[in-house]
Structure formats: C-alpha cells, structure tokens
TrEMBL record:
<keyword id="KW-0812">Transmembrane</keyword>
<dbReference type="InterPro" id="IPR044632">
    <property type="entry name" value="DNAJC25-like"/>
</dbReference>
<dbReference type="GO" id="GO:0005789">
    <property type="term" value="C:endoplasmic reticulum membrane"/>
</dbReference>
<keyword id="KW-0143">Chaperone</keyword>
<dbReference type="GO" id="GO:0006457">
    <property type="term" value="P:protein folding"/>
</dbReference>
<feature type="transmembrane region" description="Helical">
    <location>
        <begin position="135"/>
        <end position="158"/>
    </location>
</feature>
<protein>
    <submittedName>
        <fullName>DJC25 protein</fullName>
    </submittedName>
</protein>
<keyword id="KW-1133">Transmembrane helix</keyword>
<keyword id="KW-0472">Membrane</keyword>
<feature type="transmembrane region" description="Helical">
    <location>
        <begin position="40"/>
        <end position="58"/>
    </location>
</feature>
Length: 250
C-alpha cells in the first residue's frame, strides 16, 4: 500500500466490498502492468530498426558494386584507370614477397571495386547509405525538415504564383516527378537522357504529360500483347482460368 493509487483502490474496496470483480481486475492490472517505461521501449525499438536499416543498405550497396564489377563496360574502364594509376603493377611482386595467383586476383578485384565506388555515382535504392537517412536521425531532424519545407513552399508560392517567374530546370523536373508519383530516389535512378526527353517534351505542362502518359500506356499494351509469356497467360485464363467451370463425365 505504499503507492497512492493502490491505497485509493484499497479504501474503495473497504467501502464497496460487493464489487468483487472490479477489485479483482484492478489488483491484477496493477500487478501485471509493465514496469518498463514505454518511452524507453520505443527508443530501443527505433535504434534497433535504424541499425538494421543501415546495415541492410550497406549490403544492397555492396551487391550493386559487385554487380557493376562484372559488367564489361564498367570493368574495362576501371581496369584501364587502375593501370594508368599503376595500381595493378603493384600486385605483381617477385622474390620473397611473391604471392599466389589467387591472392593477386583477389587484390586486383578489390582495386577494381574501389575504383568503381569512387568513379560511379550509384543512385536510387542501391546508392551509398548515409547515416542521416536512417529512421533515428529522420525523427530527430523532423522539426528541421518541416521548417525547411515550409520555407521552401513559401518561396515557391512567392516566386511562381505571385511574381509569375518561369520555372528553372530543377523546378521543371520536380513538377514532372510529382506528376509521375515517383520518390526522389526513384527519379534519381533514371538515366540522364530520359530526363532530357522529359524536358524536351515539356512534361511539366499538365496537358503534355497526359499525352505522354497515354503514349506510355499504349506502348506497354503493345509490348504485353507481343510478349509470349503474356500470351500464354491470357490463353490459360481463357481456357483453364479460375473462373471457368467444367463438368467431365467419368
């Protein structure tokens, strides 16, 4: 009875002994209630998820580097840069420091991967992870991002709505990305020539984008119509699909 709330429940029980089930519920609800602060549980959960998120991104980034190291286009360029910098010549040593072919091959592979990491800017979901992108820092920096967005939005209204200025390249690409309903990482992963096509066709204008969207939908329909796998699927849906009932005589 050291707790004030418990003493109140005890006094109420003495005054109302007939409310047995209510006393029983309050007793066990207090006894079985978690003793750990909910804020600590939330903090530990966010930290654990952030650590998992960061290492998961690193794994995806390394997978992308390993894949690019197998693509002839990037591998040849990286090998040529390594030769120009004299990095591959260092791997072939003689005398006591001579190593096996397997060790030399592994070191050359690491050199090529390092050059690819430094020379190629990987964008999208496989880009190099940044610590400020994990959940923990996103929550901590949420007020800053909110203020930044409010300032940016006021600037947008003032420049393009009130003053009627023309859009720059970045503003045009931003409007196009919003029309396409793509995230920033998804849009960044597009090739530069695709973005140039968007600008040439003036897709920041709503009417032009609607025309482009219909063209893409028609092109997709044509590809699906010519795709053998899609043809087999349609044939299966027509002949043996889940909506067809058959009665076979034994």
């Amino acid at each position: 009875l050291q707790d004030e709330e418990t003493r109140k429940d005890y006094d109420y029980m003495l005054d109302h002994p007939e409310e047995y089930y209510r006393h029983y519920y309050h007793y066990y609800s207090r006894r079985l209630a978690p003793k750990v602060d909910v804020r600590i549980v939330i903090l530990v959960t966010v930290c654990a998820f952030s650590v998992f998120q960061f290492f998961s991104w690193w794994s995806s980034y390394n997978e992308a580097i390993n894949y690019l190291a197998t693509v002839p286009k990037y591998r040849i360029q990286a090998t040529e840069i390594a030769r120009q910098q004299g990095l591959l010549n260092k791997t072939k040593e003689k005398g006591k420091n001579r190593r096996s072919k397997e060790e030399i091959r592994e070191e050359e592979e690491e050199i090529i991967k390092d050059i690819i990491k430094n020379k190629i800017d990987i964008k999208g979901g496989y880009q190099k992870p940044k610590i400020y992108d994990i959940l923990l820092f996103q929550i901590l920096l949420a007020p800053f991002y909110l203020c930044k967005y409010v300032v940016w939005y006021c600037w947008w209204i003032y420049c393009f709505t009130i003053k009627g200025q023309e859009y720059g390249v970045e503003e045009k690409l931003y409007i196009i990305r919003r029309y396409m309903k793509m995230s920033q990482s998804q849009f960044d992963s597009l090739e530069d020539h695709q973005k140039e096509t968007f600008l040439e066709r003036q897709l920041w204008i709503r009417e032009n984008y609607e025309v482009y969207k219909r063209e893409q939908e028609e092109e997709l329909k044509k590809k699906m119509a010519m795709d053998p796998r899609w043809k087999r699927y349609r044939r299966w849906m027509k002949n043996e699909g889940p909506g067809r009932l058959t009665f076979i005589d034994d």
